[in-house]
């Protein structure tokens, strides 16, 4: 297997990720243990984000339905990503804006073929104003580098662009109010492939109820502006930091992403 160095992760860091993902021999994707007893069904695993402390959200500034309708109109009127960023920055319909330091709109290359969507900014992202710059972001860089990608070959955003206080999971109401913006952001970026990181982003954007451990690695379809985009849910790098044994699953999904990119050929849109 060839490993391509990137600007954000050194070959040594990539190798460390691959070793943690269980890659030790260039044989095949699926190891075969011929001595293993038949598999016993695993107990369902709850994703760690589900256990985050829930802090009651401050009420939205307008009623949630009114705010979401307002967001839809504003987002639709934005004709490019810069206009969308400015519109979002001026939008007061989500209470998270009041407690966050700044808007975290996007990072990477808006013309990239892959768009990655996380959950919400954390403390580091809130300080710097770019998504995935903390520890989870550093792991994301290593994961991308393991398949020859870096931030010039992906465009990154979140379902919610303001940090929820205490890094709690955004409430369904906060996600609903911000949803028209991320939908418009995907439509304007028009990627060939969408990667949803973690349960909240995968479930809300792809309209799924299953947990992330069932959803991950499954190719689904995301339609926006009349265009269907292949979408793959993956384990969130923050989850992988807490559960490093699951990196082998992340590696499998990264390989699937790379294969899809190659199978699609040159940029679609
Ligand atoms: N986790 C996310 O989902 N998004 C970020 O931007 C950072 C951490």
CATH topology: Uracil-DNA Glycosylase, subunit E
Give the spatial strand order of the biggest sheet: 1-3-2-4-6-5
Top-tier CATH class? Alpha Beta
Mean pLDDT, rounded to whole units?
88
Number of domain modules: 1
Overall 3D form? globular
CATH architecture: 3-Layer(aba) Sandwich
**CATH level-four homologous superfamily name:** Uracil-DNA glycosylase-like domain
Largest sheet: 6 strands, mixed
Distance between the termini: 30 Å
What is the strand content?
5-15%
Share of helical residues: 40-55%
Order of helices and strands: HHHHEEHHEHEHHEEHH
Unique ligands:
uracil
Structure commentary:
It is a single chain. With 269 residues, this protein is of the alpha/beta class. 41% of the residues lie in helices and 11% in strands. It has a single domain, classed as Uracil-DNA glycosylase-like domain (Uracil-DNA Glycosylase, subunit E, 3-Layer(aba) Sandwich). The protein has helices at residues 11-20, 64-77, 81-90, 96-99, 123-128, 135-146, 172-189, 199-205, 212-215, 237-242, 247-264; strands spanning 107-108, 114-118, 154-158, 193-197, 220-224, 227-234. It has a 6-stranded mixed sheet with strand order 1-3-2-4-6-5. The protein is globular, with a radius of gyration of 19 Å. Uracil is lined by residues 118-122, 125, 131-132, 136-137, 158, 238.
Structure in a nutshell:
With 269 residues, the chain is of the alpha/beta class. Helices cover 41% and strands 11% of the residues. The chain has helices at residues 11-20, 64-77, 81-90, 96-99, 123-128, 135-146, 172-189, 199-205, 212-215, 237-242, 247-264, and strands at 107-108, 114-118, 154-158, 193-197, 220-224, 227-234.
């Amino acid at each position: 297997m060839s490993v391509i160095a990137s600007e954000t992760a050194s070959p040594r860091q990539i190798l460390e990720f691959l070793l943690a993902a269980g890659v030790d021999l260039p044989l095949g994707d699926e190891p075969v243990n011929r001595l293993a007893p038949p598999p016993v069904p695993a107990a369902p695993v709850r994703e760690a984000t589900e256990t985050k402390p829930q802090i009651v959200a401050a009420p939205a500034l307008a009623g949630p339905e009114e705010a979401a309708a307002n967001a839809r109109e504003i987002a639709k009127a934005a004709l490019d990503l810069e206009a969308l960023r400015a519109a979002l920055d001026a939008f007061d319909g989500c209470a998270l804006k009041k407690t966050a330091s700044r808007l975290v709109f996007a990072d990477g290359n808006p013309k990239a073929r892959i768009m990655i969507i996380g959950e919400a900014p954390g403390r580091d992202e809130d300080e710097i104003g770019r998504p995935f710059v903390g520890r989870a972001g550093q792991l994301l860089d290593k994961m991308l580098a393991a398949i020859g990608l870096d931030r010039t070959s992906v465009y990154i955003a979140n379902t919610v662009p303001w940090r929820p206080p205490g890094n709690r999971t955004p409430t369904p109401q906060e996600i609903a109010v911000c949803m028209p913006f991320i939908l418009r952001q995907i439509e304007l970026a028009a990627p060939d492939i969408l990667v949803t990181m973690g349960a909240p982003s995968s479930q809300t954007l792809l309209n799924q109820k299953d947990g992330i451990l069932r959803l991950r690695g499954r190719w689904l379809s995301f339609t926006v502006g009349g265009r269907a985009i292949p979408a793959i849910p993956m384990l969130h790098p923050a989850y992988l930091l807490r559960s490093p044994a699951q990196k082998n699953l992340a590696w499998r999904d990264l390989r699937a992403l790379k294969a899809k990119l190659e199978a699609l050929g040159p940029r679609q849109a």
